[in-house]
Amino acid sequence: MTLPQDRQPPEQELARLKARVQELEAELEQYKGRAGDLDKQLSAERAERQVIESTPPISPTPDLEQTLGRLVKRIAMILQAEKCVFMLHDPEAGELVAQRPAVGLSDEQVKVFRVRATHGASGEAFRDAKPVVLDDAVGDPRTVKENVALLNIRNIATVPLVMETRDEQERVVEKKTIGVLHVFNKRFGGMFSDEDVRLLTIMARQAAAVIASAQLYIELKQEKDKLEATLESILAGVMVVDMKGKVTLVNQAGRRMLGLTQEGEISAPLDEVIPDERIRELVKRSMTSQKESAAEIEVKKPAERVYQGQTTLIRDETGQPTGVVAIFNDISEIRNVERMKSAFVATVSHELRTPLTGIKGFISTLLSDTEGFFDDESRREFYTIIDQECDRLTRLISDLLNVSAIESGRALEVNYTPVDPTSLIEKTVSVQRSYTDKHELRVEIPERLPRIMADEEKLERILTNLMNNATKYSPHGGEVVVRAVREGDSIVVAVRDQGIGVPKDKQTKIFERFERVDTRDTREAGGAGIGLFLVKHMIEAHGGTIGVESEVGNGSTFTFSIPVEPKRAGGGGGSA
Where on the phi/psi map is residue 497: left (φ > 0), alpha (ψ -120 to 50), or beta? Predict the structure, then answer.
């Protein structure tokens, strides 16, 4: 049998069909490959969309740390990483520093995890602004082994955190690397792939945007906290009122001055917040006139004080007023000192006039005695009184000069010489006995005191002043005892009286200038109010101390100590 001429032998047809099958199988494999690529691309796009959709929205609020916390958890979950942490660059330290929140790291690990910006995989990703993948963190020479051991790291994928600045058309005009984003230890023993790095890069952009917002918020909050801390720490009271008359801010000093007990932020009308009408009027006057205003205001509550109030307008960038800031300075002490100075001037004038009147009277008497009416003994007595009054004037003027020196910051001059304190005390008490017949003056010195290095004139004035006060403020008489003993390297002297005493709240203030206990007895006793101020400074100039124990109506005990050998004492004399 013969085949048609157009037909091929069966062997050739079979070979042709096999070749065609092979071609179709090859095409099928190509299509499978394309389908696989498309499937991978689709999976990647789905993953990328999932990342973008699952990324928490950027929030300019205090929950930014929570937002970052959700983001790092999402990154660790999508990339199947055991640990995830971001590090920010500290320009001053030149380091990349781990930040909270983190996944798989304790707070203590985050606290100590830092690396030089020139070291390790972190430094490489930061410097080159490119991803870094390490399959063997332990063996790779680029890792910082201390951190690998600290965090128990097996493998690493690191990408830079790049902050992008965009213009109005959303075009990137500036890029700045602010840190790096790490994922450590792929789960199930796997390694981080190129696809993981691509996804991590996408998520790093989201993280950088959140961190940039967080940094801006943190910087603004730090500035706000710094301003609030400054306002709260200043001694002046500060109050801010908007142009609608609503109080928006009062610092701690202002609350204390204005008697406000409300805690936290204040947002209420001025008339409801401020009880004092004069303060309200000061602020309203400034709001109405749109000019600065000032007034001195005395308040009775919560305490009797005097405040200097000043207001100024707060203006916006166009110059329009948006509110008024009122500042209150407590000038009570200034006014009190001014009153004390006025009283001091009046007292000193009286103190000066008293001896001058005596001197003038005796001099006039002697000058008018042209007929020799007074005998020599009477004249001598007059001269003695004149001499004593001159000494009194000299002491008062010397005291005033010393007060002036102390107030101007100059130290009192101390002329050290060897002094016998026992003899000095006995002599001073003997002199004081001649000035009073209502008091019994006694000296108690259990054993003779050693000679000391001191300024004898100043030591005598200290004793004289304390004993003079003891008799002056014991108007009904009584006992005045001067007791002196050695205690260690010091001589301790106590002057005890049975007088009117000093109230508890005045026992430290009486050593201040112009300060006096204001009672009927003290007003009758007189005095310039500078004696104890000078006594304290003269004792301190010797390196000693003074204090008082007293009970109203039961007398006072003033005790002072003077070193036996002051450190600044010279050989046989001289000035300290």
Answer: beta
